[in-house]
């Protein structure tokens, strides 16, 4: 399960400006497709359409052959996991933040997910702002640490489809390598859509789609695209 398909998708937020102009691609279940392109190309819009935050004007967005318009919000939320650019944490412990999305998980499961995402030592701590409110010393999490929380949450939730939206963009290269290793682990055998600015960050994708101005400008493996450019 987890096949994702966009069929000739046209989309605009407002009628005067087309954002996606006939985008078609398929991510076979378990494979990884990267969507690469400059800022404003429409990359994040693709993930919003998959979650059905918006509906397409024409064409189809399908999960396992089923139009997302025929899927409940609840099943979409459980089928798709997202590691966003900026993770906003809830005002509760790191453990709670990891468990969010799978409240039935045991302490052990939460701990294991945290360890895989390399945020293990922090799980009982409270993020800074909230801790002050309850009179405790808070934990100031860096951007990279918040991303690890999001990754741990995704490891625990184990959704069939994963969206990684510039998941390593704001990190220094050492942290990026560590996070990348954790992400490779979560995306293994899982349908994955990676959204990125740079070709160099998506070497291992099964297919790379270069999106420019709402259209697919090029597609192929990393090696194909290097050859063409
Ligand atoms: P990318 O992820 O490639 O940077 P986006 O999909 O976020 O691009 O955005 C594509 C275009 O759509 C941009 O020009 C952006 O300004 C516009 N856009 C994004 N979200 C909205 C919105 N909610 N309402 C109107 N325009 C939007
Ligand atoms: P990012 O992809 O950087 O997280 P967004 O995808 O939310 O940011 O937005 C991308 C671009 O779309 C930004 O330039 C933003 O100003 C613009 N944008 C976002 N939401 C809207 C909106 N509701 N109306 C108009 N422009 C928007």
Automatic annotation (TrEMBL):
One of its GO terms (molecular function) is ATP binding. Keywords: ATP-binding, Membrane, Nucleotide-binding, Transmembrane, Transmembrane helix. Belongs to the ABC transporter superfamily. This is ABC transporter ATP-binding protein/permease. It is found in: Cell membrane. Residues 4-229 form the ABC transporter domain. It comes from Mesorhizobium retamae. The keyword RNA-binding does not apply.
